[in-house]
Specification:
The complex is a heterodimer of chains A (113) and B (114). By secondary structure, chain A is mainly beta. Helix content of chain A is 0%, strand content 53%. Chain A contains no helices and 12 strands. In chain A, strands 2, 5, 6, 10, 11 and 12 form a 6-stranded mixed β-sheet that branches. A 4-stranded antiparallel β-sheet of chain A has the order 3-9-8-7, with no helix packed on it. Chain A has a two-stranded antiparallel sheet with strand order 1-4. Chain A starts with a strand and ends with a strand. The model of chain A has no long low-confidence stretch (mean pLDDT 94). Chain B is mainly β. Helices cover 0% and strands 47% of the residues of chain B. In chain B, a hairpin with a 3-residue loop joins strand 4 and strand 5. Classes of the chains: A mainly beta (113), B mainly beta (114). Chains A and B meet through strand 5, strand 6 and strand 11 of A and strand 4, strand 5, strand 9 and strand 10 of B.
Chain lengths: 113, 114
């Protein structure tokens, strides 16, 4: 069975500081990894994905994520956070041959001005 | 604008009543999904469909049923609602032929069972 762990319920940072949201996963075989963001009363929006190739992937709104196979991690990063980045962030994993996408519990990011 | 439409936006339902949550997409995606979102638990897959005419069970299927009569529609039915089904329900879709494509989500249905 596949699973995702997001060890931090909340992350608080000051605007302009680096932002990191942690994610570790468990899946059989090669993983497809995703990050989504959710704003209040909205559905999830896709940020970025790792399929294969370069371990550092870049996505929307200045976010990037680093895939680490040995640590089974896929941490989300942004070099300089904005107040508008305050939202709920979800990491998700799918096995390469499976339609089902499994999500972590989510991490609430608060960026203070 | 292409996307997923869910209805209703919110609903308060008495326990024991039957309820169907509607989901329609206009992207011609073959795969569709129903998730429920609960605080501290993230999103959990209820049912999915890889293509019209087929459905499968996710992590938490009990108390729910789905049908997929055509590509565009994927309704979720609660035959006899219970308070533990109070949640926010999200419908999603993705292209069947490309498993590394991200899911597209609707804006959700907030359901309260009293």
């Amino acid at each position: 069975a596949q699973s995702v762990a997001q060890p931090e319920d909340q992350v608080n940072v000051a605007e302009g500081n680096p932002l990191t949201v942690k994610c570790t996963y468990s899946v059989s075989g090669n993983p497809y990894l995703f990050w989504y963001v959710q704003y209040p009363n909205r559905g999830l929006q896709f940020l970025l994905k790792y399929i294969t190739g370069d371990n550092l992937v870049k996505g929307s709104y200045g976010f990037e994520a680093e895939f680490n196979k040995s640590q089974t991690s896929f941490h989300l990063k942004k070099p300089s956070a904005l107040v508008s980045d305050s939202a709920l962030y979800f990491c998700a994993v799918r096995a390469f041959n499976d339609y089902k996408l499994s999500f972590g519990a989510g991490t609430t990011v608060t960026v203070r001005a | 604008i292409a996307g997923i439409t869910q209805a209703p936006t919110s609903q308060i339902l008495a326990a024991g009543r039957r309820m169907t949550l509607r989901c329609t997409q206009d992207m011609r995606h073959n795969a569709m999904y129903w998730y429920r979102q609960d605080l501290g638990l993230g999103l959990r897959l209820i049912h999915y469909s890889n293509t019209a005419g087929t459905t499968g069970k996710g992590e938490v299927p009990d108390g729910y049923s789905v049908s997929r009569a055509n590509t565009d529609d994927f309704p979720l039915t609660l035959a006899s609602a219970v308070p533990s089904q109070t949640s926010v329900y999200f419908c999603a879709s993705s292209p069947r032929e490309n498993l590394n494509s991200p899911l597209h989500f609707g804006n959700g249905t907030r359901l309260t069972v009293t």
